[in-house]
Amino acid sequence: MLTRTLAAVFVSLVGLALGASAAAPETAQDYLDRGQRKLEEKDWDGAIAEFDEAVRLAPGNASAYCSLGLAKLRKGQAEAAIAALDVAITLDGKLSAAYLPVGTTAQCN
Question: Which domain holds residue 63?
Answer without folding.
Answer: 25-108
